[in-house]
Amino acid sequence: MIAKAHKNSHILIVKNNVKLLCLSDLHWDNPKCDRATLKRHMDYAVSEGAKILVNGDFFCLMQGKYDPRGNKKDIRPEHNKANYLDAVIETAVDWFAPYANHLIFIGYGNHETNILKRQETDMIQRFADLFNYTHKPQIPISVGGYGGWLTVQFKVNKTIRKSYTIHYFHGSGGGGPVSKGVIHNQRKMADIEGAHCIWMGHVHELYTMVQTKATLDKNRVPTLRDVLHLRTGAYKEEYQDGSGGWHVERGAPPKPIGSVMLEVGVNKKVEVYAIPTIITDKTH
User: Strand (E) positions, the chain?
Assistant: First the structure.
């Protein structure tokens, strides 16, 4: 189950180790979304019994009537209707039906908040409400924020509880052709305290890294603490053959397609652990 400690702090309560497929930047309704790879990765999550989390830009949503970013070639036929935004939600509820008992959490990205600002409608909350009503999943989809906290809480036994805390933030700015967004990881290390893991998307890069901090343990003894950083890639492939388009014209490089499978659990020493595995378009 998912409980709330605060509107922006969710708690996933489990008994044993759990696998989390960490996705972002699906841009599901865009024709350039690699749905075949997305489906393969989500099917893999189902086969592994994993829970699926999405850190923003679930939708693309740029083809509305008053959206200056709109382009006729970037709309799928089933969404080319007078009720464009409704059509996106309704078809998404159908497409994601096989994952009803695995898709448990969605946060906002800049594409969703842009629609909230321009069109005054909350696409993520509308999707979650209709999805939960239609499919009645074992764990209803919880809606997060643009950034927030997700804690995995383990019931080791009747008296012992252990937690693994993830701070998620969709992302901001550009990734940079050289830095790949790693500078943002450094900034988050300065901003955020108490997270075992910091997870971002947005810049369509795909990597994991660990940064270590010196601190004191509960007995005031100096110790080292590792912070895992996840940067999840996109499923919208914009470079294609490199012949043109907005992505190519601005000098952006090819970007990886994929996500991260994060296994978290408690070891024999009753310490929390995390094992990240990059899931690319060439795997699974």
Answer: 2-6, 9-14, 18-23, 51-55, 103-107, 142-143, 147-155, 161-169, 197-200, 207-216, 222-231, 258-266, 272-280
Whether residue 2 contacts residue 104, with contact meaning beta carbons closer than 8 Å, is answered with yes
State the DSSP code for 8: T
Tens digits of residue pLDDT in 116-146: 999 999 999 999 999 999 999 999 999 999 9
* Contacts for 48 with CB less than 8 Å, ≥ 6 apart: 19, 261
d(CA 238, CA 252) in angstroms, rounded, equals 9
Residue 91, domain CATH = 3.60.21
Range of the domain at 190: 2-280
User: pLDDT grade, residue 72 (50/70/90)?
Assistant: confident
Q: Say how far apart CA 192 and CA 194 lie, in whole Å.
A: 7
With 0-12 CB in 10 A as exposed, 13-18 as middle and 19+ as buried, what is 202?
A: buried
Question: How many residues are there in the chain?
Answer: 284
> Based on the structure, what is the number of domains in the chain?
1
Looking at residue 46, its amino acid is V
